[in-house]
């Protein structure tokens, strides 16, 4: 198969990458954490190949061409290229491996949104973008000395292996399935694959997908944020009285004494009505005449409750 | 027998303590008794510090929250340009419902300011609204620098000159600014 040849090529790529890593070893203590991440990646790759025999070829093909390709170029380009590839790679595979949670985050909104046309586009782009940026950060750390620190950290790798196995055993089936036909494209044209992978990584889980993780955020949670924002923007009741700056309670919030829409608390309204009785918002007098109407009507036996509770306070 | 002696012995101590605390206690009480206006003024002070209007500044004169001092710098392009005008602002105890009393402490040749510094500005009288803040008052002060209100004069003499001979008016105003506000 084509992927076999790629795997062989990647085997030769390893030593040169190590040499490059040795040059960078002066500051390796600072990059201990990043090296660990890189190691995890390597470890995972080798172990997945063993654990998941069926998906082995796709695995290697998916992962190794990065190093293979970097080997064919000059040294300075190696790092850059590795970085780019790593970022693309990580969008689908890296996130899968290390951050199954992250992957579910980045993938889920699209799946939900693809089903829900009513939700605006921006939420999908933002959520997928955040997922992408997260995975991007991971790769940047990894690629700094991904290959180079392999020999140094082999011992630690063994210690980490136990921890890694947990993640690996969860992920491989969906991983291999997901990228199976990508590898065919990849062998055809590298750059095209890079683009298609990016799209792949953001591709939504279909609701009927049997491999869809159980832990994906549910629809209601995704929907809630835009709806809530809309709700808040539509309600324009001030939180505090503009006159005395005391918080408006529920009664005050429902109190609309003037048609101009100026809201204030009941205390301030009473004080104003005891004085000149003009609305602070429009300077027009509060409607005192409605009170007279009320009393006369009550005399006639009809009870008409005024819509504006302000009348109660204007009586005096 | 016992109680008078006991009280006699202990009485001086509480009274002394009370006397010692009376000063602070009274000032504290004075502030809380008008807390509605006090809170409002404090809030306005905070807002003014965050977003002061152009060419204006204001703040309490001393530790009395109800007595402020404000400065307005004469806006460019007016005869008051470059002058610094001090104003006293005195808040009534029922402040937001009654307008603050604003008085020019710096002499100014302006048709809306009389010789004692009192202002004939509608928003400080009949057009006052509790929704207005000291920031808006200061903005109104600045706007009468830019555009006097000749139809609501404090000094009709100046108004007459302003309407009949604007150049002469501006000249005198500039001279007054130079003499009193710099």
Automatic annotation (TrEMBL), chain A:
Bias-annotated ranges (Basic and acidic residues): 54-86, 164-183
Sequence ranges of Basic residues compositional bias: 21-34
Gene3D superfamilies: Zinc/RING finger domain, C3HC4 (zinc finger)
Stretch list, region Disordered: 1-148, 164-223
Species whose genome carries this gene: Microthlaspi erraticum
Chain intervals with Acidic residues compositional bias: 139-148
Gene Ontology cellular-component annotations: CCR4-NOT complex
Protein known as: RING-type domain-containing protein
Gene Ontology biological-process entries: protein ubiquitination
Keywords: Metal-binding, Zinc, Zinc-finger
An example Gene Ontology molecular-function term: zinc ion binding
Polar residues: bias regions: 1-13, 103-122
PANTHER family, per the entry: CCR4-NOT TRANSCRIPTION COMPLEX RELATED, CCR4-NOT TRANSCRIPTION COMPLEX SUBUNIT 4
Family matches, as Pfam families: zf-RING_4
Domain (RING-type): residue spans on this chain: 241-283
UniProtKB/TrEMBL annotation, chain B:
Signal peptide segment: none
Name of the protein in its database record: UBC core domain-containing protein
Residue ranges of domain UBC core in the record: 36-182
InterPro entries, alphabetized: UBC, UBQ-conjugating_enzyme/RWD
């Amino acid at each position: 198969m084509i992927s076999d040849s790629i795997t062989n090529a990647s085997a030769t790529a390893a030593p040169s990458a190590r040499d490059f890593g040795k040059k960078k070893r002066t500051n390796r203590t600072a990059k201990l954490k990043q090296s660990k991440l890189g190691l995890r990646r390597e470890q995972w790759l080798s172990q997945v190949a063993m654990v998941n025999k069926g998906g082995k070829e796709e695995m290697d093909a998916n992962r190794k061409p990065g190093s293979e390709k970097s080997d064919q170029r000059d040294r300075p380009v190696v790092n850059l290229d590795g970085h780019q590839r790593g970022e693309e790679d990580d969008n689908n595979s890296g996130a899968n491996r290390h951050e199954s949670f992250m992957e579910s985050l980045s993938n889920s909104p699209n799946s939900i949104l693809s089903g829900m046309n009513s939700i605006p586009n921006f939420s999908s782009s933002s959520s997928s973008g955040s997922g992408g940026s997260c995975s991007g950060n991971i790769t940047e750390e990894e690629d700094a000395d991904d290959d180079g620190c392999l020999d140094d950290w082999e011992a630690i790798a063994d210690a980490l292996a136990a921890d890694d196995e947990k993640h690996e055993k969860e992920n491989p089936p969906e991983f291999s399935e997901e990228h199976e036909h990508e590898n065919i494209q990849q062998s055809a044209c590298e750059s095209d694959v890079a683009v298609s992978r990016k799209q792949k990584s953001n591709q939504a889980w279909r609701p009927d997908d049997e491999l869809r993780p159980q832990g994906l955020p549910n629809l209601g949670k995704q929907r809630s944020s835009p709806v809530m924002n809309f709700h808040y923007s539509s309600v324009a009741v001030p939180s505090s009285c503009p006159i005395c700056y005391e918080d408006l309670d529920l009664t005050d919030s429902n109190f609309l004494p003037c048609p101009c829409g100026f809201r204030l608390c009941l205390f301030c309204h009473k004080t104003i009505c005891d004085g000149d009785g003009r609305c602070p918002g429009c300077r027009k007098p509060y409607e005192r005449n409605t009170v007279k109407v009320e009393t006369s009507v009550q005399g006639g036996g009809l009870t008409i409750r005024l819509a504006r509770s302000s009348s109660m306070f204007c009586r005096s | 027998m016992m109680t008078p002696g006991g009280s006699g012995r202990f009485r001086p101590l509480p009274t002394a303590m009370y006397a010692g605390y009376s000063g602070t206690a009274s000032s504290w009480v004075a502030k809380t008794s008008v807390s509605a206006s006090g809170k409002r003024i404090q809030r306005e002070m905070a807002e003014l510090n965050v977003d002061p209007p152009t060419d204006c500044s204001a703040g309490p004169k001393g530790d009395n929250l109800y007595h402020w001092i404000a400065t307005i710098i004469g806006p460019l392009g007016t005869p008051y340009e470059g002058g610094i005008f001090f104003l006293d602002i005195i808040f009534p105890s029922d402040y937001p419902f009654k307008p603050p009393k604003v008085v020019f402490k710096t002499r100014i040749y302006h048709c809306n300011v009389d010789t004692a510094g009192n202002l004939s500005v509608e928003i400080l009288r009949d057009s006052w609204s509790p929704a207005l803040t000291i920031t808006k008052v200061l903005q109104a002060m600045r706007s009468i620098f830019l555009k006097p209100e000749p139809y609501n004069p404090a000094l009709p003499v100046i108004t007459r000159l302003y309407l009949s001979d604007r150049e002469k008016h501006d000249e005198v105003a500039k001279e007054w600014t130079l003499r009193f506000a710099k």
